[in-house]
Each structure stands twice: as C-alpha cells, then as structure tokens.
Amino acid sequence: MKKLFIFSILLATVVASAAPPDESEIAIRENAVWRAVQQKKLEQFQQLVSPQVRGVFADGIMVMQDYLKAIPKRTIKSISLSDFKVVFPDSETASIAYIAKVKTTTASGPEVTTTYNAGSVWRKSKGRWQAIFHGEAKQVSAKSVPPASTPAGAH
Amino acid sequence: MKKLISYATIALLATIAVSTAAPSQDEIMAKENAAWQAFKDKNADGFKKVVSADIVGIYDDGIHGMQGEIDSMKKMDMKSFAISDFKVVSEGPNLVITTYTVKVEGTVDGKDASGTYNAGSVWKMGNGKWLAIFHTNILQAAGASAAAQKKE
Q1: Which of A92, A121, A140, A148 has the highest CB neighbour number within 10 Å of its CB?
Q2: How far away is chain B from the Cα of A15, in angstroms, using its nearest Cα?
Q3: What ipTM did this prediction achieve?
Q4: Helices (DSSP H) in A54-131: which residue ranges?
Q5: Using 50, 70 and 90 to split pLDDT, how confident is the model at A28?
Q6: Which of B64, B55, B65, B34 is nearest to B122 (CA)?
Q7: Closest to A57 in 3D by CA, of A70, A76, A46, A45
Q8: Distance, in angstroms, between B102 CA and closest chain A CA?
C-alpha cells in the first residue's frame, strides 16, 4: 500500500513536470513582474526576469542594469493588464501579448494613465520560467499627459 | 575499420554541434534584414520563410499575428530601411534575441511613417531553421536616440 502511494506521488510529479505549459501560468508571471516593478522589489524582479533580458521602448533599449536603475525612479499608482494572448512556440518558450493600462505620477505631480500594447517572451530553463524579452508601445489612440519624467518602460 | 567508425562518430558529433550552435551575429542579422526586405517588397512568401506562423508583433497600432503582419505589409509603402546598432544575445542554443535601431522611410495608408525606431526580435531554431517568433518596433521618443544607443 505504501509502495503504491509513493508510486502515485512519483507518477503525479512526472506527469506534472511533463504537462504542457499553462497559459494562465505565464499571465500570472507577467503580472508578477509588473507588481515587482510597482512595488520596487528588485530581487523579485530579478527572479522573474533573465539577467540577459532586453526591453524595447520608445525611450531606448534596456538591459537588466537599466531596469534596476529605472524601477526605483518610477512611481506606479496602478496597473491593469487585459486581453492576454499566449502562444507556445515550444514547451519551453512562451510569447505573451496584452494591453497594459498604467497610472503613474510624474515628478511634477499630475497622474498620467497610459495604455500600452505590450508583450514578452518567456523561457523555461532548469524548471523555471524567466522573461527574456519585453516590448511595449504606447497605443496610438491612447491619450496621456506628457511628459513622463522617467523611462516609459515599466517592465 | 575501428578508425573509420571513430571518424564517422567525430563527424556526426561535429555536425550535431554545428547545427545546435548559436548563430553568428552576421547570420542572424542577415535573417533580420531578410524579414525587413520581404516586408518592404510586400513579399509575403519570403516573409513567411523567416518569420514563424506563431509570430507575435507589438506595435503602437496593435498586437499582430501573422495575418496582422501581412495586412500591415499591404498598407505600408516602404521606400527604404537601414538597420544599425545591431546586437545579439543568445538564450540557450536555440533562441537568440536581437536589438537594434532601424531608420525607415515610408508611408502607411498614405500617411508618413518615416522615423527611427527602436526594434528587437526573438529568433528560435526549429527543424533546422531560424524563425522570428516575436518582434517589436517602436518609434523613438523625441530626444531618445542617445538612450537607444546605450552601452551594453
């Protein structure tokens, strides 16, 4: 009986690790990155994001070092992510796209809400998903009060 | 005979190593250029040879899959494009990230869309071929050109 129980546990573990990736898991991780940015939790950010990450924004192309400098400078009041679409080119790679509504405050005070078309690529390595690439483009139809004083790239 | 088997084994291993090695910067830049050239030429078949059917594209006017890319291709009349500051980083043997700036001259639906864009792609090796699986290009913010050419 004991053996059967252990075997069942082992089998469940193997099945779980071999299970196809879950779209919601990627969306949850993407959300977690934004929360880490909002809460300025750099360690959490670095756990979720690859050291080799590249981010493409209107203001520039960022590497991890740039993110770590930019995150503490930005005050995000609220984040709302929606319309998630996830594609798995293979079981260890995921592309996610979505709309991000981000409310920030600038150094001069006023709140600005900006809507971005955003997306990331996630890579599973050694059993762990990490974001390796991110891009966000301010929607052309979206209106916001310029200028945002810190880099637009929140994540 | 034993030697022959050894040589064959070495040759096989070398072939495997070459086919799984990360591509050179020139090789992946040629692919990136090919995608842009196909887009400029409105060559959908050529575009599909270097871009995955699962492509995800992030732009200011929307989030595109392959059909969205082809629709954009039809709307854009690109006179020229010039890629610069091209950088490549590998994420394992079958995935590479490119970042660069691209100066584009052209119109979309008759409206000027010329400018310098910050751009990047993720390329994935599958079935012996490198295909772009993710791409973004975003018009540089005014005064952002220096930031875009950051040291890496």
Answers
A1: A121
A2: 25
A3: 0.84
A4: 64-70
A5: very high
A6: B55
A7: A70
A8: 12
